[in-house]
Design the sequence.
């Protein structure tokens, strides 16, 4: 009796599952196989110990609107000479691998670009941002760039009068993914709304929420639920790190994308692959914690580049080679007023290093290394300050064209909570990836503090001549496993330290 009752109860409990299993259509099963196969083949099995050693090629995987430009313009461009830059980083056409022996790629390309790069000698870095903030920023930037076209009387005239870039090195925002899709979309929309307003078809909205002024700009809620936003923006970081954007180099990327969009639960596979990739990266930065991130980036990447600057005689190049390669390297500049200054900034005063012919020959001492490093950081700060000024004025100029809409930090607070919730749900993979990145960031922080101490000791007791880069790397290499071991032990002992720090960081950010 008892048994029968139990059986009946368990059947009742199991019934929904049984029914569900049989009602799942084939395509879920097919899709799961496709996505699973992709995930298996994408799993990383690189040794973690040497992930902190900067390899010959640095791939900066730039997720749009995470502030990567600052690292590129103000740091990497001063660290690497132009001829070390792989041609047409950020280009309209796909990445061009015709230039051998370049050392740096900065691109909005997704992780699948790695399939075109020498994987064993490539380090990857990236920056993540709070997903909700990133969506806001994508929206605002798309509108802002599109609004610049409103100087034209109509869309036809905006489309026909193409602004020619001043030099072949300039790449317009409109040629760069994802802006080449988002800006034309917003541009068309802005002109349509202006026309409708003129014809009296759109009533002036009361300006309480600038993210919802439909007589001027596509409201945010309309933007985030549009198919293009689903295609490009939502979970964009996870897809980019997983190598699954619309412009992936992977053959089965389109099928995997289609499957994940049809069956959102399969997104977990994407997330796991993306997390694994972050784990292997040389550096993961945070937009929200820019100062700390930049300092970390400088000590992880900058110090290693500087310490090697005298290592290989083959690095020595006469000045003329620099000039020849200027034409093949791309620079993202869209602002006419800023072109002159930006260019001067990025080509002129550089601290580098790899082709530095001015400094005396000889070994890099710890002292010299620190001097160069500090010099680099000063240049960085100046550059950041300048670029903020330029951006602020451009921002104001663009916003004038869609007045009274004015995107400010304060205005974001007026957006209803329900919409923020919706943005979080639409970006659930990115939310999780962001949380994962927070714990990586914490580990980096511990590593760096230790590393800083070591460098300081070295700099203070200089009599040691460092045979760069070997000694420096030796230091890193001996230090890193130790610290990693320490982290593992600590984390095992108390899971909660991590969460304590994460919570603390959240509060601070
Ligand atoms: C667009 O503006 C240009 C320049 O003012 C004008 O010549 C053209 O007729 C306009 N086109 C339309 C469709 O209104
Ligand atoms: C996606 O890729 C296809 C084919 O590569 C292209 O035609 C389409 O314009 C792209 N769409 C977006 C939104 O990226
Ligand atoms: C550089 O260091 C190596 C090894 O410490 C030493 O043999 C060499 O003489 C040094 N060269 C110069 C120019 O100081
Ligand atoms: C937007 O708001 C900022 C700060 O409140 C203000 O300084 C700026 O002038 C405003 N811009 C426009 C175009 O209204």
Sequence:
């Amino acid at each position: 009796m008892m048994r029968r009752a139990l059986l009946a109860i368990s059947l009742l409990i199991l019934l929904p599952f049984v029914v569900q299993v049989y009602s799942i259509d084939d395509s879920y099963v097919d899709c799961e196989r496709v996505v699973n196969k992709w995930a298996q083949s994408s799993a990383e099995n690189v040794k973690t110990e040497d992930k902190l050693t900067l390899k010959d090629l640095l791939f900066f995987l730039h997720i749009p609107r995470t502030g990567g430009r600052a690292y590129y313009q103000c740091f990497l461009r001063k660290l690497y000479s132009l001829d070390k830059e792989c041609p047409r980083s950020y280009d309209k056409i796909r990445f061009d691998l015709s230039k051998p022996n370049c050392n740096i790629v900065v691109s909005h390309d997704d992780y699948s670009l790695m399939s075109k790069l020498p994987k064993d000698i490539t380090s990857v870095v990236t920056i993540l941002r709070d997903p909700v903030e990133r969506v806001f920023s994508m929206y605002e930037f798309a509108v802002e760039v599109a609004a610049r076209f409103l100087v034209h009387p109509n869309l036809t005239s905006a489309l026909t009068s193409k602004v020619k870039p001043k030099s072949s090195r300039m790449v317009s925002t409109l040629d760069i993914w994802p802006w080449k899709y988002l800006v034309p979309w917003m541009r068309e929309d802005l002109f349509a709304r202006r026309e409708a307003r003129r014809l009296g078809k759109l009533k002036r909205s009361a300006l309480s929420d600038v993210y919802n002024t439909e007589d001027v700009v596509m409201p945010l809620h309309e933007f985030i639920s549009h198919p293009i936003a689903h295609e490009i923006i939502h979970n964009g970081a996870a897809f980019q790190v997983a190598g699954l954007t619309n412009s992936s180099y992977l053959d089965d990327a389109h099928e995997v994308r289609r499957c994940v969009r049809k069956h959102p639960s399969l997104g977990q596979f994407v997330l796991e692959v993306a997390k694994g990739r972050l784990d292997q990266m040389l550096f993961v930065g945070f937009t929200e914690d820019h100062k700390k991130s930049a300092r970390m980036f400088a000590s992880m990447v900058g110090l290693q580049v500087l310490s090697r600057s005298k290592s290989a005689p083959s690095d020595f190049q006469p000045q003329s080679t620099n000039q020849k390669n200027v034409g093949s390297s791309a620079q993202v500049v869209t602002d006419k007023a800023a072109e002159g200054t930006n260019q001067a900034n990025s080509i002129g005063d550089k601290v580098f290093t790899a082709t530095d012919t001015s400094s005396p020959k000889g070994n890099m001492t710890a002292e010299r290394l620190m001097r160069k490093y500090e010099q680099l950081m000063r240049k960085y700060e100046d550059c950041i300050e300048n670029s903020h000024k330029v951006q602020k004025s451009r921002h104001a100029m663009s916003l004038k064209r869609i007045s009274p809409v004015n995107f400010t930090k304060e205005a974001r607070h007026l957006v209803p909570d329900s919409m923020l919730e919706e943005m979080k749900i639409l970006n659930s993979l990115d939310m999780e990836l962001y949380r994962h990145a927070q714990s990586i960031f914490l580990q980096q922080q511990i590593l760096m503090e230790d590393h800083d101490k070591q460098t300081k000791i070295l700099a203070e007791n200089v009599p040691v001549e460092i045979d760069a880069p070997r000694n420096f790397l030796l230091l890193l290499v001996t230090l890193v496993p130790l610290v990693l071991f320490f982290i593992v032990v600590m984390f095992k002992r108390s899971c909660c330290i991590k969460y304590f720090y994460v919570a603390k960081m959240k509060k601070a950010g």
Observations:
- The longest helix spans residues 366-400.
- DSSP finds 20 helices and six strands in the chain.
- Residues 15-24, 311-360, 462-470, 488-504 have pLDDT under 50 and may be disordered.
